[in-house]
């Protein structure tokens, strides 16, 4: 229950930030062009709101709704989700959206998307400035990786070291390398000291989504203690030191971290004997694992961290944000496959992006990523989304005639129907996976 609450709190906080920034983009540009904003709400407020406040001499009511599915900025004279037909039936007023030139209306509509994208770039920049860019170079993974069954079926073997996707060198472990591998025609690996070429099927991504087995486990490494972050952890209390190289648990050989962690997890809250080399000498210590079957050592391949100054973090953050957007847009083509459609998820899937313990770096990384997604999804040319309004405004500029209000009303209703259907489908997938997979 605690894990669920922590993830839910992170999700709500993250989406609240994104919604406020998005709607503020619409709000500020509406005010710049002297368009009246009637409501500015976080969450939706059908029938009643949790909080509302209208400043004296202000046209705008600010509030918090009870339905946490987003938020909205109600702009006078605009056909939106409020479907205020009575107001639209009145003659246009100078302060209304529909009375302004097409260029101004276009800027008001794209402002939300632009603000979300700028927010993502800013967050990525501050992440790099605060924590730097930490990554695992593939060349440091001297014992390769353990590959999922899906990848073993096309020719990968445990211990393979990734070298190249087609003719492009693979540099770091992560989503970028995974994407390059599944989209390549051939992947070159180092196997037993020799280069081996593996042919990649055209439907590799679909196979991954269908099987749900993932890519590879990077923990095919010797268990060499890099540090003891918790001085009260079992390993530290027993007397282990950095650079100790674990070779056996309870007399069973453990050539890799994967083997050692597996044996430890089988002995939760029990005493174990750990054999390790220290300065070339074989030694042993007895210790009791914790309830998760861990002994409290930091042992991973040596990562690389690049630090950024305040000003140099911005171009690096912009580059990271653009690459993230490119990767997401590239992956969208899989949504239109059978496997991609079945992998769509709703709030449960989004909440699963956040860790079960609060970590500010991960929180901001996920928030920046969701801001990229929100910006891209909102600019899609679907009525009821910002992109739908933009599509009709571009038509107006090109054709030099506005679509009728009646047409826009019907388009808005059709768009809302599509969005609700997608919402039900995506969250239905979450429910199905929770109960049946």
Task: List the defining traits of the structure above.
single chain, alpha+beta, four-stranded antiparallel beta sheet, 14 helices
Structural write-up:
By secondary structure, the chain is of the alpha+beta class. The protein contains 14 helices and 15 strands. The strands form 5 sheets. Strands 10, 11, 12, 13 and 14 form a 5-stranded antiparallel β-sheet that branches. It has a 4-stranded antiparallel β-sheet with strand order 6-5-7-8, with helices on one face. The protein has a two-stranded antiparallel sheet with strand order 1-2. Helix 3 packs antiparallel against helix 12. The longest helix is centred in the last third of the chain and has 32 residues, at 405-436. It is elongated and about 90 Å long.
Helix proportion? 40-55%
Number of helices: 14
Which structural class is indicated by helix and strand composition?
Answer: alpha+beta
Mean pLDDT: 84
Number of strands: 15
Biggest sheet details: 5 strands, antiparallel
Order of helices and strands: HEEHHEEHEEHEEHEEHEEHEEEHHHHHH
The low-confidence parts are none
Distance between the termini: 20 Å
The proportion of strand residues reads 15-25%
């Amino acid at each position: 229950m605690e894990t669920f609450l922590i993830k839910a709190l992170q999700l709500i906080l993250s989406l609240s930030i994104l919604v406020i920034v998005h709607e503020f983009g619409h709000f500020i540009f509406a005010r710049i062009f002297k368009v009246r904003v009637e409501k500015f709400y976080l969450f939706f407020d059908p029938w009643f709101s949790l909080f509302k406040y209208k400043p004296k001499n202000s046209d705008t009511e600010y509030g918090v709704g009870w339905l946490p599915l987003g938020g909205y900025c109600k702009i006078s004279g605009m056909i939106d989700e409020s479907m205020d037909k009575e107001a639209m039936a009145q003659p246009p007023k100078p302060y209304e959206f529909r009375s302004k030139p097409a260029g101004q209306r276009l800027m008001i509509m794209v402002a939300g998307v632009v603000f979300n994208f700028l927010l993502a770039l800013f967050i990525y920049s501050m992440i790099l400035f605060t924590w730097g860019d930490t990554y695992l170079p593939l060349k440091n993974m001297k014992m390769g990786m353990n590959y999922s069954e899906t990848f073993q079926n096309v020719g990968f073997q445990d211990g393979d070291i990734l070298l190249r996707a087609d003719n492009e060198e693979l540099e770091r472990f992560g989503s970028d390398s995974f994407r390059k591998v599944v989209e390549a025609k051939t992947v070159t690996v180092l196997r037993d000291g020799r280069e081996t070429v593996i042919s990649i099927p055209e439907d590799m991504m679909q196979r991954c989504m269908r099987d749900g087995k993932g890519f590879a486990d990077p923990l095919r490494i010797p268990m060499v203690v890099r540090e003891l972050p918790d001085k009260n952890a079992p390993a530290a209390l027993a007397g282990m030191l950095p650079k100790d190289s674990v070779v056996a648990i309870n007399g069973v050989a453990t050539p890799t971290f994967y083997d050692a962690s597996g044996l430890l997890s089988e002995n939760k809250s029990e005493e174990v004997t750990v054999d390790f080399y220290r300065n070339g000498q074989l030694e042993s210590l007895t210790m009791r694992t914790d309830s998760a079957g861990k002994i409290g050592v930091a042992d991973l391949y040596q990562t690389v961290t690049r630090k950024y100054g305040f000003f140099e973090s911005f171009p690096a953050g912009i580059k990271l944000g653009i690459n993230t957007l490119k990767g997401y847009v590239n992956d969208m083509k899989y949504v239109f496959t059978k496997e991609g459609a079945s992998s769509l998820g709703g709030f449960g899937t989004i909440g699963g992006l956040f860790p079960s313990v609060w970590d500010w770096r991960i929180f901001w990384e996920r928030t920046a990523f969701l801001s990229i997604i929100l910006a891209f999804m909102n600019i899609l040319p679907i009525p009821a989304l910002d992109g739908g309004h933009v599509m009709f405004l571009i038509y107006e500029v090109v054709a030099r005639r506005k679509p009728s209000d009646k047409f826009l009303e019907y388009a808005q209703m059709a768009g809302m129907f599509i969005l609700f259907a997608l919402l039900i489908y995506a969250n239905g997938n979450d429910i199905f996976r929770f109960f049946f997979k």
